[in-house]
Structures are given as C-alpha cells and as structure tokens.
Amino acid sequence: MSRPHEPHQPFFPFGNPFRMLSSSHLSRKLLILSNTFEETLAGRLGRLNPKDKDEVLSFSWMKLAMESLCETHNDIKTLITELELPVCDWDEKWIDVYLDVSVNLLDVCIAFSSELSRLNQGNLLLQCLLHNFKSNSSKLFIRARSSLDGWRQHVNSKNPRVENCCTILDKLVKSLDLPKVKNSAKGKVLMSALYGVKVETIFVCSVFAAAFSGSGKKLLELNVADKFIWSQAYTALQTSVNGEISNILSSGRFPVLKELEAVDSSVKKLYPMIQDGVDPVEVEAFQNSVSDLGRRAEKLSQGLDLLTKEVDSFFQLVLTGRDALLSNLRTSGTDSDGRLLGNGTERV
Questions:
Q1: From CA 142, how far away is CA 132, in angstroms rounded?
Q2: Are 17 and 191 in contact, with CB atoms under 8 Å apart?
Q3: What confidence score (pLDDT) does residue 42 get?
Q4: Per the UniProt entry, what is one GO biological process (predicted)?
Q5: Entry pTM
Q6: For 108, what's the count of Cα atoms within 13 Å in the CB-facing half-sphere?
Q7: Is the peptide bond before 255 cis (omega within 30 degrees of 0)?
Q8: 23-27 LR contacts (CB < 8 Å, sep 24+)
Q9: Tell me, what's the pLDDT at 333?
Q10: What pLDDT, in 10s, does the model give residues 66-107?
C-alpha cells in the first residue's frame, strides 16, 4: 500500500501469490471463466474513467461507481456458482478472509450512509431558508440568516464515522495478500477474481471517504501487476480520479462534492444580501439568487437520494452474501470449528 505522498511499494514483498495462475495450470473451461471475469472487470473500470474531470466527485459519477461495485460483486457470486466450488471445499483461510473483508465493508457502508443522512439533514435547513425568503418580513430575514449560519456550520462539520474509514481501508488493503492456494485450480481462479473485486472495492471506498471527509489521507494508490487483464484499465482510472481529487483538495476547496459546492456557492452569494435587508434596487438580483439556490438545492437533494439508494443496495448485497455463506457453513457441517461461525456472526 502507498498513499499519494508516499513512494510506491509492492504489495507482495515475499512473492506473488498468483504466480501459479497460468494457462498451463488451468483447464480450458476454467481459463474461459477467469478471462471472462477479468475482461468484464476491465470494461467496467474503463467506463468508470471519467471523460471530463468535472465529473469527478459529482453525485452522478459516484452513483455510477457504486453501481459498478454492485455489478462486480454480483459477478463474483456468479463465478463461484459456475466454478461449482461448494463451501464445504473452501479452505478455512478463504472463509476467514471473506468474513473479515465483508464485515469491514459493512462498517464502511454504515459510515457512508450516516454521512449521506447527515447531508440530508442539512437539506431541512435549506428548505427552511427558502421558505423564509418568500416573505419580506424583517423577522423572517433574521430567521433566514440563522438558517444560513446553521447550514454552513453543518456542512463544514466532520463525521467521526467517515474519519474512521481510514483504519478500515487499511485493513482491506492488508487483505489483498490472499492465502496461498495449493492443489486447487478452481481455488486459484477464485482467489484471483477476489483480488480484482477487492481492488475495485478499495478504490471506490477510498474515493468516497476522501470526498465525504475532504481529506486526501483517505485516498489509496494500489500497484496492480500487469499480468491481470484489467490492470491497465484500473491504473488509468486510479491515476485520473485520484489526480483530480488531489488537485481539488490541494486548492483548499471545501466542500468538494460538486452539487454541495454549488449550493455552498449560492449560500455565500446570498449571505451578504440579507445582512441588513434587501435594498429595493437589488430586489431582482436577490430573487434570482434565491431561485438559483432553490434549483441547486433540489439537484443536491435528488443526488443524495439516488446515491443513498446505491449505498444501501451495496450494503444489502454484502450482507446477503455473508448470510448465504454462514447458512452454507451450518448446513454443510463446516461449523464444527466454532471459531469460524463466532468470527462470522458476533462481529455483525
């Protein structure tokens, strides 16, 4: 792992655990399954690479990123089915890794959902603000100023759950060093595919954490070996998105989310207009500014709602996968080692 301000370090100082994954060790069926998964992931990462840098940190791009993540996690479920690799044949280490990673992902989702909920609460202040602007009463203008102050303080405050994401992401990065697979061609395909899933997951989650916290410390840069079909697409995506986010953060802009920044710009424009009441000469300019704020606030509200649904969908996807694995462990008798099920259920 390396962060933007640190030198790049290889993930596998003791050798590449995927060195045995080659066409000479796989049957034609397994090779097709592996290549199909990787080619699909490469295409998905390529589509996620924004054509315009202004798309980065917009709700539309973040929604697309979360949708992409859900699709990739669904693909790994499909791959496991096609591999015909029942849970009873899984190595205990694979199960441990899966349970640890999934519970960390649930924690990350909860942090993101709490931040989206917090931003939605800020919308209530905006709606109150816009309502007060419908009257010329000086008393209501005082309330409007109070709402403006409240909103600005709200959006500039920090969410402890998002701040803690850095620790969770570090755990996910450590999980990239997957358990060694011996005498199982299907296991090698599964571990290789899981590596791709986790790389995309870590990337998307680190971008979200950086966007919500306004901190470049949440950004992660991963070195991916060229042997993976999707490595070039991932490197291009990471370079493009992380580079633009770093530029935004280094400029001192906050908030950094596009729609939130647009609302904040309107608020800053309105604030001096209502300090001592609106001058008759400035009435038209004032009304235009209020209308502009209303449009931007509505766009922000819609973006928050759509992104919240996608984060919730990802949470449910991860949770359902955990439930399915734990259920299979119980029915297959793998739960004879109580440590496994204890590790899986108690942390949830």
A1: 9
A2: yes
A3: 97
A4: root development
A5: 0.84
A6: 29
A7: yes
A8: 25/185, 25/188, 26/185, 26/188, 26/189, 27/185
A9: 57
A10: 999 999 999 998 998 898 877 777 778 878 888 889 999 999
C-alpha span between 65 and 52 (Å, rounded) = 15
- The distance from CA 77 to its chain's CA centroid, rounded to whole angstroms, is 20
φ/ψ (deg, to 5) at 12 = -120, 75
CA distance 276 to 160: 37
Q: Is 219 helix (H, G, I), strand (E, B) or coil?
A: coil
C-alpha angle with apex 164: 159 to 165, nearest 5 degrees? 100
Residue listed under structure tokens 């986010």: 245
Whether 209 shows a pLDDT value over 90: the answer reads yes
> How distant is the alpha carbon of residue 20 from its chain centre?
31
Q: What does the alpha-carbon distance between residue 342 and residue 36 come to, in Å, rounded to a whole number?
A: 35
The number of angstroms, rounded, from the C-alpha of 23 to the middle of its chain's C-alpha atoms is 33
Over the stretch 108-160, which tens digit does the pLDDT of each residue have?
Answer: 999 999 999 999 998 888 887 787 777 666 666 777 778 888 888 888 888 99
Q: Give the residue from 330, 344, 329 showing the smallest Cα distance to 89.
A: 329
Structure tokens at 220: 């992660």
